[in-house]
Predict the 3D structure of the following.
Amino acid sequence: MRNADFYAQVWVAVRLLRIRIFAETRKTPSISRVCDELSALGGIHSIVGGNIEAVAAASAKGTKQWLRFRIGSTRSSLTPSAKGTIFSRHSVTNAETLRTCYGDADEMAKRDRRLRLVWMNLCRQHLGLPPKNRRATVLHSRTG
């Protein structure tokens, strides 16, 4: 099982693309269609940040296995490159794998309504909207 941040990234990416497709067509696309589109756009990559030289050294030593990429010619995609300066911890480009990961993430969101609220607020941030239900994001103790 992957970490929760990865599932959040998949869930948010699928939701945002679903919203964008709906805005263009006024029809809610299926999760399958969205995952196919996301796959065609290059999939999802969990980028590793930090000092490029230090990350490259750790990757070269074999202590961490990160994929290396460079920005593609269209400036909107990543291309695998042994000398690339972009390191990815996880890379999911297959539409079926994206559907499976989204299904797992959606189950997590359905089981925990606070998690769903946080992920929905991440979507809202990407869309430039204010968070919903701000009070729910801060836990208050009302004892006494």
Q: What stands out?
A: The two ends are 41 Å apart (CA to CA). The first strand starts at residue 44 and ends at 48.
